[in-house]
Task: inverse folding
């Protein structure tokens, strides 16, 4: 191996990993409606969605859009303030459309292997018996991110404003939760979020999310649990 070859090999480290890419599941080809809805979401959570990478999921449409229609949808997303990076839902036709648009084609976001148990757990059990996983006793401060890959995340300290905690499983916070908590990051709809002092800017389970502005005031500052009931993210006091 020459010195040049060694330099080329060490110049770039390329990895596939977990990244914060939003997915927009389209049920209409109306570009105006898409732009308006994305603008509404960005206004509610600008720190999460403004200039965020976006994948357009075409799986719920009755048929794939024509190239010019797809281009209009991409323009609508950009006009709203997000950055389209690809299409999802892999069919041969979709591959052709993605190639024409010069965009990558993403596989569907992986779903959990088991169906979610949407019944409310016993509060005492939920509060005292966290599942095995990644444990940390340190506060997560603004700008920091903690990710428990392939397991639950258990935090004994606070999550500050502007911080982000992510787990492929459930998240347990035994302090104040003021940042963002993303459970079921790889699609596990059975994941849950528990915290002692709920002030979260945003919580998400398997891609379904709620921002603080959408949460009833009587839940703020309380011990809560969150889980998915179908496609609805439920938050209740412990």
Result:
């Amino acid at each position: 191996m020459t010195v040049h070859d060694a330099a080329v090999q060490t110049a770039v480290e390329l990895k596939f990993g977990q990244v914060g890419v939003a997915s927009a599941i389209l049920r209409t080809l109306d570009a105006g409606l898409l732009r308006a809805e994305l603008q509404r979401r960005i206004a509610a959570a600008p720190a999460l969605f403004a200039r965020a990478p976006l994948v357009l999921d075409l799986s719920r449409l009755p048929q794939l859009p024509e190239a010019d229609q797809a281009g209009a949808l991409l323009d609508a997303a950009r006009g709203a303030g997000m950055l389209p990076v690809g299409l999802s839902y892999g069919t041969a036709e979709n591959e052709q459309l993605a190639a024409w648009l010069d965009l990558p084609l993403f596989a569907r976001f992986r779903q959990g292997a088991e169906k979610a148990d949407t019944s409310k757990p016993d509060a005492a059990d939920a509060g005292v018996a966290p599942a095995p996983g990644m444990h940390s006793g340190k506060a997560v401060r603004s700008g920091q991110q903690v990710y428990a890959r392939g397991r639950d995340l258990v935090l004994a300290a606070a999550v500050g404003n502007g911080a982000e905690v992510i787990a492929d499983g459930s998240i347990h916070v035994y302090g104040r939760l003021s940042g963002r908590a993303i459970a079921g990051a790889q699609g596990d709809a059975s994941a849950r979020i528990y915290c002692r002092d709920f002030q979260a800017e945003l919580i998400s389970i398997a891609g379904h999310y709620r921002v603080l502005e959408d949460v009833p005031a009587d839940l703020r500052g309380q011990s809560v649990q969150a889980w998915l009931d179908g496609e609805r993210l439920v938050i209740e006091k412990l």
Notes: The chain is about 25% helix and 30% strand. The radius of gyration is 20 Å.
